[in-house]
Amino acid sequence: MPELPVIDYRAAAGVSLDPIRARLLAALAEPGSATTLAAVVGLTRQKVNYHLRTLEQHGLVELVEERRRGNMTERVMQATAASYVISPSTLGAVAPDPRRAPDRLSARWLIAVAARTVREVGELLAGAAKANKRLATLAMDGEVRFASAADRAAFAEELTAAITALVARYHDDRAPDGRPHRVVVAVHPMTGEERP
Prior knowledge:
Layout: E1 6-7, H1 10-17, H2 19-27, E2 32-33, H3 34-41, H4 45-57, E3 61-69, E4 72-79, E5 85-86, H5 107-130, H6 149-170
Parallel strand pairs: 1-5
Antiparallel strand pairs: 2-4, 3-4
């Protein structure tokens, strides 16, 4: 089961955002049937079956096994992933685009860059899965506590200089077999929930 597929088409995004279907997806981290799920979500088995068929049509759940129960067949389903991310590309023309707001110091630009990252890496991940290959990526996550706004500004200057120097050292426009990579570095305040 893939851990984090990126949903990149509108219909599946809409289906996954429905509150009942989202609860079913969460419950289907472990295999379950309409009968077992009905008690979990407080709906009739028939209504759960309707939602499961919709989720299955969009590739969000899959059949694990079928069991004969008297004169009927019980279908046991499971979510196709542990978690999902919805690509901003599902928004079409209104998806965030860093080219429309190129202010590197604005929060809007940071969100647009993050949205582009989700879209691009989601597309690359889907391609790698189809080719049965791994996708080479690198991500770093850390925390820094600044004593003052002046320290934060100095950090930003030093970080910019270091990344610029590193990119200049390894970037080669003349490499015929070279593959371009995108470098994204972001610094933002932590939310209240994230603070220790």
